Amino acid sequence: MTTPILTLGQTLLQRLDEAARHSEPGPGVTRLFCSDEHRAVLEVIKEWMSKAGLTAELDASGTLVGRNERARAGEKTLIMGSHQDTVVEGGKYDGMLGVALPLMALQALKEEGVELPYGIEVVAFGDEEGTRFQSTLIGSRALAGTFDPASLEARDAESVSLGQALEAFGGDPEAIPGLARDPDSILGFVEVHIEQGPVLEQRDHAVGVVTALTGIERHRLIVTGKAGHAGTTPMPGRRDALVGAAEMIVEVDRVLNATDDFVGVVGKLEVRPNAVNVIPAAVEFTLELRSPDAEVRRHGRDGILAACRRLAAARGLELDIELTYEAEAVDCADWLVDALEDACRACEEPAERLFSGAGHDGLAMCDLTDIGMLFVRCTDGLSHHPDEAISASDAEAATRVLMRFLAELGKCPG
């Protein structure tokens, strides 16, 4: 009995299944920056890079970088890639698809005898989600030359600093500034990613071309009241931090629902002392806000935070607000949008143009070079969830589109 020959799409899904096995126990995929699971998945990616004709190296920021001979020789280089890390109990395609797919495309071109007339660099960034340290885009900011050394002091739930974790992982915090690329040596940055939304599925399209990435900001709010016995403290006059925080969260939801092109979430909440018969003394929660329009986001943010301060004062609570992350919306380069659109048409795939409601490493890489992004349809538009899924046929289509894009890139005016 002969072994069936797998399509590019089927092989790609098998590779993504293999990468997903490197996860903390539990539903979905949980793989954090500088973790044992991160270390293990890099061995898998190194093998993919080797098959694609790239030489792999871990850089000082924890990014695995694969380069072809032209890139290593200093020729003008196209950077592709995405991130390996996940949210807690996330899916197997968010981020990792953008690492595995370009390597599959490069391997297929190599096997077809196609030699690209420019340098290629594929990156597996260590941290984009910000799950472990609440600090994100570490690797991409390093390449763009915008890395903030102060972020090395960020600490995880076990009080391990980002700098300490990087050193233990094999990175070199002090060497990160030296990773900045020369803009004149870079052709652009292209990322492939699942859409994380329903548009392509509604249009019955396998792929789409991204025109811009959303602006994002994140805050940490700490509401402080006063603990007390839940049975003996009268209701009037209580300084219940959780009740105050609940009112604030409801206000967040109200403003978001009342404002066009504005979305957000309170995704994490911690209560202290978190006891069944004690009035909550303090609540810490996160607030993330997104909009393609910077003015919409800022106006909505100001309204939300002003309301939170009023609600805190009305209940005699203290409120501390800290901005932990902010990135403005950025446009994809017209020439890359056009080139990806042409590649879609050449592969007889509809070239839907759409906006990304998520951020991605392009928010940092745009400070270095032109950026472009190809979306791949995902089932039910679902992402950041164990049921995240794409089909083998869509994986095949996206790989073929990227192959065509790479083959034609040398002819583009960009």
Primary descriptors:
414 residues, alpha/beta, Aminopeptidase, Alpha-Beta Plaits, 12 helices, 34% helix, 21% strand, globular
Condensed summary:
With 414 residues, the chain is α/β, with parallel strands linked by helices.
Unreliable runs, pLDDT <50, ≥5 residues? none
CATH architecture of the largest domain: 3-Layer(aba) Sandwich
Radius of gyration over all CA atoms, rounded? 23 Å
Shape: globular
H-E order: HHEEHEHEHHEHEEHEEEHEEHEHEH
CATH class of the largest domain: Alpha Beta
The CATH homologous superfamily of the largest domain is called: Zn peptidases
Note the total helix count: 12
Average pLDDT confidence is: 95
Main sheet specs: 9 strands, mixed
Q: From the 3D structure, determine the CATH topology of the largest domain.
A: Aminopeptidase
Structural class: alpha/beta
| Cα distance spanning the termini | 50 Å
Number of strands: 14
How large is the share of residues in beta strands?
15-25%
Q: Could you estimate the helical fraction of the residues in percent?
A: 25-40%
User: What is the count of distinct domains?
Assistant: 2
